[in-house]
């Protein structure tokens, strides 16, 4: 059974609205279809792919425990996962959008001039890498 693509990651948070707003406003994603689950949250899309699932810690944990599915414990940062990466176009537009939203990003130009990167954090401390390739 070969994998065909990465679909999503889950962000557990105490503030689902602030997390949703970050991904939609700062990164330009869109809230999309989410089935009627037993806990509050959002599915945030890039195109037709639900890339980020956002769930409220307490109710998600209760639901998962009821299903016999273990939940990560609270910890600073993202544990053994260092960052999540996305591809974008138009470096200047991405930088301008982040600045308008008050999001600070570290910049890295990869030697060779073909890749520029931005590193930032969501409201929950999840590190995000944005790769913009120069064509």
Please characterize this protein's 3D structure.
This protein is of the alpha/beta class and 135 residues long. It contains three helices and eight strands. It has helices at 16-26, 57-67, 91-100, and strands at residues 9-13, 30-31, 41-46, 49-56, 84-88, 106-110, 115-121, 127-133. The strands form two sheets. A four-stranded mixed sheet has the order 1-4-3-2. The protein has a four-stranded mixed sheet with strand order 5-8-7-6, with helices on one face. Strand 6 (106-110) and strand 7 form a beta hairpin. The longest helix has 11 residues, at 16-26. The protein is globular. The chain starts with 8 loop residues before the first strand and ends with a strand. The relative contact order is 0.18.
């Amino acid at each position: 059974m070969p994998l065909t693509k990465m679909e999503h990651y889950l962000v557990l948070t105490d503030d689902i609205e602030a997390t949703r707003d970050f991904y939609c406003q700062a990164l330009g994603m869109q809230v999309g279809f989410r089935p009627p689950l037993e806990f509050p949250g959002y599915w945030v899309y890039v195109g037709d792919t639900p890339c980020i699932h956002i769930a409220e810690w307490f109710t998600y944990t209760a639901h998962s425990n009821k299903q016999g599915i273990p939940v990560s414990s609270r910890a600073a940062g993202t544990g053994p996962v260092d960052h999540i990466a996305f591809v974008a176009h138009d470096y200047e537009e991405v930088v301008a959008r982040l600045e308008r939203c008050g999001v600070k990003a570290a910049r890295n130009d990869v030697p060779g001039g073909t890749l520029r990167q931005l590193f930032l954090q969501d409201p929950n401390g999840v590190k995000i890498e944005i790769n913009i390739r120069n064509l």
